[in-house]
Design brief:
It is built from 6 helices and 12 strands. The protein is elongated, with a radius of gyration of 21 Å. The chain is of the alpha+beta class. Helices cover 24% and strands 37% of the residues. Helix 5 (197-211) packs across helix 6.
Length: 250
């Protein structure tokens, strides 16, 4: 079986990547790496037929290309996945695999070809419809004259939660994910935490996200128990985990 893997421009893999996105109908955390020029694209061919692609980015350094983070093969070639993936490793000189656990094909390659596998991020998708309500709390769009508290981890956001005449939480959604998905975020004023404001804000930002024609998604650090609880209570559910492993030399 003759397999040829060549480094190409992003445009040359886009038809195959459209199939990848259709098959993986969820938020792709590293989607923006393609558009921002942070990745290299590899076209996989057999006898001149385009059968798949691989994408490689820097694991910890944007200037490097040492981690395979996307891998797609046409279904007819899945019986040769292990052999083809090894050829991708050889062609790219990758040292790591980084992937989402809900992306089945590359995750199977992670456990076949890598060691020291770990996870540091939880991925969330839209979950149950919630009906949280806190008397006196108002969700609305942010206004120019709003007095916003100092933020330490997230942007100030497009929406606020107001109690009385004070903003106690802010949030919004970013559009760096693959369409139609959006990345929800929020931050609660430090002295107003543990009162349910974060979950209420997430619940309402979800609605605003849908109104904008997007599907809500989110992520948080695997050790951030407070954020995890807030996202779950606000109507999201765990969709997967970011995984990373070191490729075992062949």
């Amino acid at each position: 079986m003759a397999i040829h893997i060549t480094k190409v421009s992003l445009n040359e893999i886009l038809p195959l990547r459209a199939l990848f996105l259709q098959e993986n109908n969820f938020q792709i955390r590293y989607n923006a790496c393609h558009e921002r020029g942070w990745s290299d694209s590899y076209l996989i061919q057999s006898n001149g037929i385009h059968i798949g692609y691989g994408s490689v980015k820097g694991k910890d350094d944007l200037l490097l290309r040492d981690a395979i983070f996307e891998f797609y093969l046409l279904p007819a070639w899945h019986g040769n996945t292990n052999f083809i993936f090894q050829q991708l490793i050889n062609a790219s000189n990758a040292m790591f695999i980084e992937c989402q656990s809900n992306s089945v094909l590359i995750t199977s390659m992670l456990y076949e070809f890598a060691a020291n596998i770990s996870s540091d991020v939880i991925l969330f998708a839209d979950g149950p419809v919630t009906t949280l309500d806190i008397p006196g709390a108002t969700f609305r769009e942010r206004q120019e004259d709003d007095k916003i508290f100092e933020h330490h981890s997230e942007p100030e956001g497009s929406h606020v939660l107001e109690v009385g005449d004070k903003v106690v939480a802010t949030g919004g959604f970013l559009l760096h994910y693959n369409k139609p998905f959006a990345d929800l975020y929020m931050e609660v004023r430090e002295d107003q935490r543990r009162k349910g404001y974060g979950s209420l804000l997430i619940q309402e930002v979800k609605k605003a996200c849908y109104e904008a024609g997007r599907i809500p998604a989110a992520r948080c650090g695997i050790s951030n128990k407070a954020s995890k609880a807030t996202l779950l209570k606000g109507g999201l559910k765990i969709a997967g985990y970011m995984l990373s492993g070191e490729i075992i030399p062949s």
